[in-house]
Amino acid sequence: MQTRTQDNDQVARRYEELEHLESAGVLAYPYAFDKTHSAAAAKSQYQDDTPELTVAVAGRIVGIRRMGKASFVHIQDDSGRLQIYLKKDDLPDYDQFRLYDIGDIIGAAGYMFRTRTNEVTLHARSFTLLTKCLSPLPIAKEEIDEEGNRIVHDQFADKEMRYRQRYVDLAVNPEVRDVFRKRAKLITTVRRYLDQRNYLEVETPVLHTMYGGAAARPFASHLNALDIPLFLRISLELNLKRLMVGGFEGVYELGKNFRNEGIDKTHNPEFTMLELYVAYRDYMWMMEMTEEMLTEVVMAVNGSLHVTAANGATLDFTPPYRRATMHGLIAEYTGKDIEGMDLASLRALAHEQGVHTDATMGIGKVIDEIFSEKVQPHLVQPTFVMDYPEEMVPLAKPHRSKAGLVESWELIINTQELAPCFSELNDPRVQRRRFTEQAKLRDAGDDEAMLIDEDFLRALEVGMPPAAGMGLGIDRLTMILTGEESIRDVIFFPMMRPDERRDAGGSDAAAADETAG
RNA sequence: GAUCUCGUAGCUCAGUUGGUUAGAGCAUCUGACUUUUAAUCAGAGGGUCCUGGGUUCGAGUCCCAGCGAGAUCACCA
């Protein structure tokens, strides 16, 4: 039987040290530790002229400087780093510290003081092993230069290893934890904003017998109990609308969607969406609300309404954001008014503009292509793009005054689509027609066109009140607010191709297949 | 899916025109050191050069195929 995940001299030595410690009576994996202070609190509560401050702290060893009969250790906890001074005269088991390593999790108790080099430090009266680190951690060395800049030497930087072993990345690269703290702040701020307005947070199934609500390819599975095909949801939309039919006037869900499509800097197969539906409101109302909510979120996460994006652009979230119609923007960037154009004329325009189209594309997709290529790359500041063509948005209500368009907008920030919204289509007759048109597109070869969902149509027949609905891509907003340029840097465990060389073992695929059948 | 780039010690990286036993810093080990902080000083160990073929007297280096990653493009709310 394999006893160690890795086998090199450093791992072997640490296993030996662990045995030495245990044979000396040390409990290598104890059950708890009475921690009184975080590293940050211990430092901030210390004042040179006050009485002795005694603390008990715990954290991972990130640096050791042994000096014979005394040692300096830096530990790191959730709040930051703290130096600990270990002195043989004060510690009967000092010699045992020889068997401690970088990466070990320890507890220490003592009193705070300031060293000769002016660092507030814990003078330990006791220390204890809390968890042995058996795999060497690539903790980088840091120094502070004359100007106070933090210089990190030989930082653990291999992106593949950082994503595959995120626990190591988080343990040794403190700034990575900050990204995810911001992500959490974003989500809690959104939730608080919506809860304060009495919208109901709900959970709807991830497993769908029929997928819908967006144009995307699904993940397919199989439900053994009923012997039926099953799909992971590609959007939250249709079930939330069913809840509106049931009488909830404001519902939202924060959850994962799954799309069986490409993986790149802005796409992960599973990603987090907010969807919100509010009865008796329309898309213009939702625009105001979204603007207000985003302003609050940006302030909470970023501390300012000016955000520096990964590509260096400065994004200004001061409301109001720009509002422009899709037709207006296309006219602005191509010089052509597409209002009322038929498919042939649109194809000709696309060709003239150097935009590629193919035979499977209907009017909606051709316009989408022109917009994506000629307009969207110019939209850096937050912009509400309004009034999409009907063919592009099968679940939105026809525009109250503009024929052929729907009441919808998409918020674009830094050329990225971030949040779609419609006045929700609730006329079952129109919805059936739109679904039928989607079915034709599907027959024409568009494998992302929507399916006809008879139960959803029945729900609309029961009656859904007029409502506005909005979706918000949480991962992409996190990217913008943290200045990360890859979605993988805002998802703890992004999808990676399995590493068979590194993870070869007895478990996984074969066994899973057996139970799946 | 296409193209380009990369894969060498636990980590970060060198490695010349193809040529002796593949190097450095950190980490690790041994020794010294009771206020250090990229601690310092002396010594030591550690390699599937991503994998498999090929060319060659000789391959980390050149060629082919594969695996993995990154970037760009294509696709994609």
Main sheet properties: 8 strands, mixed
Determine the structural class based on helices, strands and strand pairing. Answer: alpha+beta
Strand order of the largest sheet: 8-12-13-20-19-18-17-16
User: Mean of the pLDDT scores?
Assistant: 90
Distance between the termini: 29 Å
Topology:
Elements: H1 9-23, H2 39-45, E1 54-66, E2 70-77, E3 80-87, E4 105-114, E5 120-131, E6 141-144, E7 150-153, H3 159-164, H4 166-172, H5 174-196, E8 200-201, E9 207-208, E10 220-223, E11 228-232, H6 237-246, E12 250-258, E13 270-279, H7 283-302, E14 306-308, E15 314-316, E16 322-325, H8 326-334, H9 343-352, H10 363-375, E17 383-386, E18 408-413, E19 416-423, H11 428-443, H12 454-462, E20 467-473, H13 474-482, H14 500-503, H15 508-516
Parallel strand pairs: 3-5, 8-12, 16-17
Antiparallel strand pairs: 1-2, 1-4, 2-3, 4-5, 6-7, 9-11, 10-11, 12-13, 13-20, 14-15, 17-18, 18-19, 19-20
Helix pairs in contact: 4-5, 5-7, 5-13, 6-12, 8-10, 9-10, 11-12
The structure holds one RNA strand of 77 nucleotides.
List keywords for this structure.
BirA Bifunctional Protein, domain 2; disordered C terminus; 32% helix; elongated; 2 domains; RNA-binding; 5-stranded mixed β-barrel; alpha+beta; OB fold (Dihydrolipoamide Acetyltransferase, E2P); 517 residues; 15 helices; 8-stranded mixed sheet
In words, what does this structure look like?
This protein is an alpha+beta fold and 517 residues long. It has helices spanning 9-23, 39-45, 159-164, 166-172, 174-196, 237-246, 283-302, 326-334, 343-352, 363-375, 428-443, 454-462, 474-482, 500-503, 508-516, and strands spanning 54-66, 70-77, 80-87, 105-114, 120-131, 141-144, 150-153, 200-201, 207-208, 220-223, 228-232, 250-258, 270-279, 306-308, 314-316, 322-325, 383-386, 408-413, 416-423, 467-473. The strands form 5 sheets. Strands 8-12-13-20-19-18-17-16 form an 8-stranded mixed sheet, sandwiched between helices. The protein binds one RNA strand of 77 nucleotides through helix 1, strand 1, strand 2, strand 3 and strand 6.
